[in-house]
Amino acid sequence: MAKGTMRYWAAAKAAAGTHEEPYDAGTLAAALTAATSRDGRGDEFRRVVARSSFLIDGDPVGSRPHESVELPEGGVVEVLPPFAGG
């Protein structure tokens, strides 16, 4: 297990009710499961996360399965929902 920070942007921030929170997980999938299972998180947060892309310490996750993406100790996961405009 690694400990780090998850940062939420735009719609993810609004749906989470916070800009950032800690993670304690070995993989991106485990961190997202924990985040979406927190008390007070509803369906909107789960929908936003499902549509989001992710950066880990600035590197894009891309289409890799989230179960295969290991999280680093002290890392930062950025949750980026789709943005409108240019």
Describe the structure concisely:
The chain is of the alpha+beta class. The chain has helices at residues 11-16, 28-37, 43-51; strands at 2-8, 20-25, 53-56, 59-60, 76-80. It contains three helices and five strands, in the order E-H-E-H-H-E-E-E.
Task: Write structural notes for this entry.
The model has no long low-confidence stretch (mean pLDDT 94). The protein is globular. The longest helix is centred in the middle third of the chain and has 10 residues. Strands 2-1-5-3-4 form a five-stranded mixed β-sheet. By secondary structure, it is of the alpha+beta class. It has one domain: Ubiquitin-like (UB roll). It has three helices and five strands, in the order βαβααβββ. The protein is 29% helix and 28% strand.
Tags for this model:
86 residues; alpha+beta; Ubiquitin-like (UB roll); five-stranded mixed beta sheet
Topology:
Elements: E1 2-8, H1 11-16, E2 20-25, H2 28-37, H3 43-51, E3 53-56, E4 59-60, E5 76-80
Parallel strand pairs: 1-5
Antiparallel strand pairs: 1-2, 3-4, 3-5
